[in-house]
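Course exercise 7: structure representation. Students receive a sequence record and must write out the corresponding structure in token form. The form below is the worked example handed out in class, using 6-phosphogluconolactonase (243 residues). Read each field label carefully; the graders check that inputs and outputs are placed in the correct fields and that the protein name is recorded exactly as given.

STUDENT ID: A-19
EXERCISE PROTEIN: 6-phosphogluconolactonase
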Amino acid sequence: MKDGARCHTLADADRLYAAVADRVIALAESAVAARGRFHLALAGGNTPRRLYERLAARDDTDWNRWEIWFGDERCVAPEHQDSNYRMARETLLAHVPIPASQVHPMIADPAIAPERAAADYADALSAHLPQQAGWPILDAVLLGLGPDGHTASLFPGTPILDVLDTPVAAVHVPRLSAWRISLTLPVLAHARHLLFVVEGAGKSDVLARLARGPAAGEPPLPVERVSGPRAEWYLDAAARGSA
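STUDENT ANSWER:
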């Protein structure tokens, strides 16, 4: 993976999150100027925490024009410690004046079946976002990278990778014995910007695998099916390694 317009390697995590925060604010300004709203899908997991804390300290954006979505979610209550919504609320959403009606959690009631919750979220995206060729268009999607090549909740070998007719789907991840809800490949392909944020030496092996590409007969990793001309990669030096 070579540095360039679409791949940025920062010396350390502090510089990494500063650069991504600057990029998100710039994309917000551009989207608001062009369309009056900034539709951003947040990533979950541990990596984005420091990014969200940095964004929460910014006062150079019109938070009232932001609409917050989520790239994926665990099928747990919003107050559960594993909830991506809870993490985003504690690190970002509770500290900025985005109207509550413009924050769209994936899971409002964990008693609802995952498939129903996914269908409801797909309907919400379609109702609120601009459309292109029948697909809702997000302005930006923040994404991480797992050591197995997954991003959002698009895990290797799971049937959600074959879902091509809806922007959101539920998936059972056998190795986690858990249900997740995730944006699907087509809606990610239609997003205006995909920002991959990757930190730490634990990601260097999968980045090296991405740099060389799949071997003969080896299926592409989920992230390889997502990444494309709209993708921007932000890495710290430890993650980059020799990739």
